[in-house]
Model the fold of this input.
Amino acid sequence: MHCLVLSISLSVAGLNLHKCCCRGLIMQYPWNWPTILQVIGRLFRIGGEKTVDWTILHVTGTMYDVAEDKMNRKFCEQLRLESQIPSFVKGIRLQRMIAYEIIRLTFGQPFNRFAWVMNPPEKVQDYDSKLNQVLGSIFSTIVSEVTSQPDTDHGSTQVLLTQLEVCIPKVAALVKRNPNDPIWLNFGVNQLVEMVEDVEFSEEKASIG
Done:
């Protein structure tokens, strides 16, 4: 087996490796996701004859989480402002949640990291907590239901989206009380809105910073 070892800075410098390599391993994070997309693009080229397989090394409970959190927050805003979000979604929290889901699906993250925004970890070990895993799963479900709504600026869709936008911080507060509640395994967004109606929350927890 032959292996070519490159730094991130060299890997984004217009190399075409698709004819000699189909597997890649990223072991070091830069400070933004677009750089990693450039690295990944070295193997994805017209004319490639093999299935390309990339692995992004991530060690949970370490500085990898801290670096990823910073990368996610920057890329989230880029996705949101570059119109990668359905136009009928007006609320900024929902827009960011959808952007985080795009990031999750693009880079194979185990759960929607918008959980880290709504429940900021106090220490490195908290990034992969049960609470954040459950929150991330809930946010993925919300995104799935929101993006399956009729593409319209009127009627019941906008009513639901407005309700969801308001209740997102309340969801985080409610899940924090009991992240092991089986209700989080199977719910609908309308049911979620009703569940959190009387929940109090701290607005300062919901910053993108």
The longest strand covers residues 23-26. The helical segments are 8-11, 33-40, 63-81, 92-107, 114-118, 130-147, 156-177, 189-195.
